Give the backbone structure.
Amino acid sequence: MLRDPKSAEQMILNQITDVIYKAHHHAYLYDFKDEWAEYVTALSLHRLANAWERRVEIAEATARQKGIDL
């Protein structure tokens, strides 16, 4: 188990990136041979979207704190 949350997050993001990269090379999700890969891809894309949305929220909050109008 990783004790550093940043390392754990980076490891998860790397895994997500790997799955998305593999999915990019397949035209459709059914090109994958097993349902688990489809599940992992869908979960990875969902988590990536949530992480991106959270980063946008943090950036917007930081901008508001600095008095920058969005």
Notes: The chain has two helices and no strands. The mean pLDDT is 75.
